[in-house]
Design a protein that fits this description.
There is one protein chain. With 232 residues, this protein is α+β, with helices and mostly antiparallel strands. The chain is built from 4 helices and 11 strands, in the order αβαββββββββββαα. β10 and β11 form a beta hairpin. The chain is elongated, with a radius of gyration of 26 Å. The relative contact order is 0.17. The mean pLDDT is 88.
Length: 232
């Protein structure tokens, strides 16, 4: 952590992808950069994610802050099991921290990590929208600027979730911004997929009968019917 902190203070760029407890929060490092990491996980009660096969533990994000990473970002992103990551109320001198995006209004940060049931408790939980990603910058001299991006989830960039809506674009935009290659920040076109159709032998025979027999016969019968009607 000291090496990472030193790298940032020399004008380096770092991306950190956290996960809910019991995963590490890296609180000591985060506090140095005016970032608060919650001991919780975010629950999405809107039900919108169900349309895409996502449950309450996979918050769906549609609204983004004004930042180069999410500029003209008009696609949805999904975050399987994510914890809150928020700017500190009193930032350290010289450090600028801002929320990159938050969960929707019908969500909350659940702090009860022992129960297998989640319900909002206004005394202990954080009412949505909940910040789940932040960006921190700091001028370090010699025309250098430290860039730090912290997400409350790492699964969104995994192979399984990379192709979901805007997840892949968000990850690549983050890396491009950290590398100061901002010209590469965009919504990239989707690669064509090789979608193969697997059929049983019986299904293959049925398709053959339809294509080679039923369709030609149907066209022939229709043609004869039209011809007979015109003769009359």
């Amino acid at each position: 952590m000291d090496l990472i902190d030193g790298f940032l203070n020399k004008g380096g760029s770092v991306a950190i992808f956290l996960d809910p407890p019991p995963a590490a929060s890296l609180n000591d490092l985060m506090k140095k950069w005016s970032i608060d990491v919650g001991n919780n996980f975010v629950v999405d009660a809107s039900g919108v994610g169900r349309l895409f096969g996502a449950g309450p533990s996979i918050p769906l994000v549609t609204n983004y802050s004004r930042h180069k990473i999410t500029e003209r970002f008009n696609v949805m992103t999904f975050f399987p099991l994510v914890r809150s990551v928020t700017p500190a109320k009193t930032p350290a001198t010289g450090i600028n921290v801002e929320t990159l995006f938050s969960s929707n209004e019908r969500s909350w940060a659940e702090t009860d990590m022992k129960s297998n049931q989640a319900s909002f408790d206004e005394k202990t939980d954080i009412k949505g929208p909940v910040s789940i990603a932040v960006v921190a910058t700091k001028d370090t001299g010699d025309n250098k600027k430290a860039r730090l991006v912290v997400y409350g989830d790492s699964d969104f960039a995994s192979n399984q979730a990379f192709g979901l809506q805007g997840n892949g674009n968000l990850f690549l935009n983050t890396i491009s911004w950290l590398a100061q290659d901002e010209s590469f920040i965009s919504i990239r076109p989707k690669n064509p997929e090789d979608r193969r159709l697997t059929m049983t032998e019986a299904q293959g025979r049925l398709v053959s009968f339809v294509v080679l027999l039923f369709l030609p016969v149907g066209v022939l019968v229709t043609g004869i019917s039209v011809w007979m009607k015109r003769r009359k």
